[in-house]
Write the structure tokens for this entry.
Amino acid sequence: MIKRRLFLLLMIIGLVPIFGLYDNSEEILLASFHGNTGRVLGASDVSPGVSGRNLVARDGRADVVEKRGPSRVDVYFSSNRTKDPVEMLEKERILVFPEDHVNFFPDPTLGLGSRISISRATEIRLNDNGKWATYRTWGKTVDDFIREKELDVSQFDMVGPSRESLVENGMMIEITRANDGIQVEHQYSPFNVVIKDDPNLPDGKVHIKQNGVNGDRQLTWRVVKMQAGEIKRELLEDKNVNAPVDKIVMRGIKAVTYAGPYMDWINEAAAKYGANAGQMQRVMMCESGGNPYALSAHGKYKGLFQYDNRTWSVSGWGDKDIFDPYSQINAAAKAWASRYTKWPVTSKICGDLGR
């Protein structure tokens, strides 16, 4: 176990210059959940009118909490090897709010697990004439918060603490409305994310064809209040500002092929098992130079991908001749799709084969 963790650490250190940090705050916008978990949205795509803001459930607390000013950073360590960042959040049952910024290190697509850092917006409680609500904001002052959430606060309304006050985590803000005032309410309906396959776009590529827009319905009320509370509410205007516009994401499905020895078989096997044909071809040339009868210096490793007899026997193709190129290519593609690492010794000798 210790050796394995050390190996993972060395892998992460070695990959930093290549892959760096993975900030998927925007990519999360492409994903949606079904059932009770809701949809993960970015801070720019949500307003206070949206219901169901707790989008992903969480069990327990963060592994590490780093305090930075009024906000905080929750750090989680996930050993889950899913390559989908949203699926990783869901499986770890991590709570994500629309205003939160999520970073993964290393990139989840490597399948190594990740250190998940969630920068939490400042949480405040708002008492708007006796109506309590919880908000999260990146505003520095109370006035910033009011502007950010587009709250309808007139010059006659009383706000406490004052608009110039700095926002603090857990702060309570009270708005006392003036009598016989006008109140504008926005009811937002979030846009849908539509993913379409594009046969002209290479497999693995994504193109945003159309940005989504939230629908906006504006209600204008005349509200009459006394000290004890509201006594009359009159609807002056009900206006649909705009209907929601779908966000359209084009997902590439065009197969990528490569040229070289045995590439027809390599492309066929890679498509069958979900491997990377280009990487397989580079490994094969580095291991054997494309010679199906290649032997290592001591004769232990054989064929295109240099299998030893023991590994070959459990490859799923062990009943075939170890020197048969078709069998070795299919065995390698099958292993490629299921292994955590691919020919690590070859990677060190021949350089980064994952590019």
The mean pLDDT is 76. The helical segments are 2-19, 85-92, 142-148, 263-273, 277-288, 309-313, 325-338, 344-350. The CA atoms of residues 1 and 7 lie 10 Å apart.
